[in-house]
Amino acid sequence: MRTRKLLDTGWGDTNIIMWSWCGQVSGASEKNINTYLKLMDQLETNYPHVTFIYMTGHLDGTGKQGNLNRRNNQIRNFCIKNNKILFDFADIESYDPDGKYFLDKRADDGCNYTEDGVRKNWAEEWCNDHPGECPSCSCAHSKSLNCILKGKAFWWMMARLAGWH
Predict the structure, then answer these.
(1) Which residues of the chain, if any, have pLDDT below 70?
(2) DSSP 3-state assignment of 113?
(3) Nearest-5° angle of CA 2, CA 43, CA 28?
């Protein structure tokens, strides 16, 4: 309703909309996510000159078999099947900058993971191994490196949407 009101009132020159999650996807059912997908798809139909960006939920430590990953895959599959734009928050949180994978180690949005029964943090480990490559920034419930990676991914996505190749 708020998105329609914003677009119907001609608020500025809005041409991109992204509905963002916090922890809602973790507890969502398949039906809840279908509602999200249906509403977004309907907005795209009703506002063809606006680009809508879908989003996955952030990691919650439940791993590959958890409800969050199942719901994120539901969103991913819909976007792939229907050629939608997706900002895959969970995918960004699943890898360190060297490409080491952590979702299978029950990673969460704070970059924490479990390996051999020990709780670790991939961002702290990566920054320790790469001194001087991890600037500090304000980052809600995570590590600066994670937020910087998300920011870079978002910038890249926006640049591509603006026509950059």
Answers:
(1) none
(2) strand
(3) 75
